[in-house]
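Give me C-alpha cells for this 470-residue protein.
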Amino acid sequence: MDNMEPDSLVNRDDPIPVLTISDDKESVAQNDGYIDSQSDGKPRKKLSASKLKEDFSRSVDVKKIPSGMQDRLMNSLFQQIFPASEDAEDMKPDRRSRKYVERPNFRLPLMSSNFRRFNSRVGVVFIFQNRLIKLFSWKVPSQTLSFLALYTFCCVDPNLLVVTPIVACLFFIMVPAFLSRHPPSSHDHHSETFAIRGPASAPPPDIKPAPELSKDFFRNMRDLQNGMEDFSVIHDHLIAVVAPLTNFSNERLSSSVFLVMFALSCFLFIASGSVPWRAMFLVIGWLIVCSLHPVVSRFFLAIHHGEIEPRLKDANVYLQRWIEGDISLDEAPEVKEVEIFELQRHQSGGEWQPWMYTNTAFDPLSSSRISGARPRGTQFFEDVKGPIGWEWKDKKWNLDLLSREWVEERMITAVEVETEGERWVYDIAAGDSQTADKHKPDWQEGNGQGPKGQWRRRRWIRLVQRQTSK
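Here you go.
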C-alpha cells in the first residue's frame, strides 16, 4: 500500500490457455508454441489495390499518429507496390450518413497506432477472463461455492438479477477504491484496520494504459494472441458441427433437424408456461459447474470413453435408419414448359423471310407493335437458351399444334389462325380488318391462301426441369 503510483490493468498471472478441440481419446499435450490455424488455404477478402494506394498517399495526422522515418518509408514503398488503376466502385459517391462516412479508411500507420493503443488497454478483459477460468476450474473452492450460492438465489428469485450488477459495483469497484484512499497506518504492521474516518491519506487510484514495450504490454500481446487462437478454434469447431446439420448438404439429415426443431417450437409455444424454468436452470447450472471440477471431469471422461462412446455408434446407426426410412426425398425435379415464337416477315415478292425467334408473339395489338419497336430475339434456333437454373428435359423443340388455343388464351385479335398444316398465325391485312363483320370473333380461321399482313408467327414448346446439385 505504500506505492501509490498509478497502475495498469494487466493479467500478470498465468497466461490464458489456448483451447484445443480433439476427438482423440488420449490427452493432448500442452503446446506452448504458435498454432497455425490458417493453413487451410481458403481465399481471403482483399482490399482493392487502388483503394490502398489512395489511403497510403494521404497525409497522416501528426497530432494523433507519431510520424517518423519508418512511416514515411513504408508509405513510399506501398505507393510503388500498388498500381494506379482506379475501380469504378471506388469512385461512386457515398450517400450514407455523414458520421459514418467520415470514419477513416484503412491505413497501415493508423492501424498500427490503434493496435498499440488497444493492446495497452485490453488487459482488463484478460484479467476478467483469467478470473473466470480460476472460478470455474475450482482453483479456490470457496469462491466457486460462493458463486453457486449466488446463482441459486438468482434462480429462486430472478428479481435479484437487477440488484447483482449494482452490488458488484459497490463491493468490487467502489469499496476497494475507498480503502485505497484510506490505507492502514504504515507504522503499525500488525494492524489491518483501515482509517475510514478523517481525510484521505492517499491519492485516488488511477488506471493508466500499459507502457509500450513494457512487460505488461507484451503480456497483453501474449493473451491477445491466445485469444485470437481460441476464437479461431471455437469458430472452426462450431462450423464443423453446426454446418452439416443446417446447410442441407445432407438433405435427409437437415430435414430431420428441421422437423424436430419445428415440433419442439410448437410444443414450447403451447407448454412453455408449464415448464419449471427456475428449477431447470438451477439444476443445469449446478451440473455444469460441478462437472468442471477436476475430479468430476476425470470421472465423466472415463464414463464417456468406456460407456457412452460405444453406444453412440449404435445410436447413430439407428438414427440413420430412421432418417432414411421416414424422410423421403425421391421426388422428381420440377418440370415446366417453355415457349418460343418463330417470327417471319412478308416480303414484297410474296415470300416469307425468316426473321427471328422471340419470346413474345408480336401480335398487332401488342405494346411493342403499337410503340413501333422492333422484335427482339435471336436469328438461330440453336441460340435459344433455357431459363437460368433450369436444364432441358426434351431433346428438341416441338411445334405447338393447338394454335387456336394459345391465341385464345392470350386474347390475341386481328389475326388469322391456321388450324392445319404448319399452324401459322397471320396478321390480318388492313383492308380485310376494316370490312370484317363486327359480330365475328376477333380472330378468324384460314387456310393461308388469302391476303396476309406483314407478320406471321408460330409457337414452339419444350420441357425444362430444375437443375439439381449433388
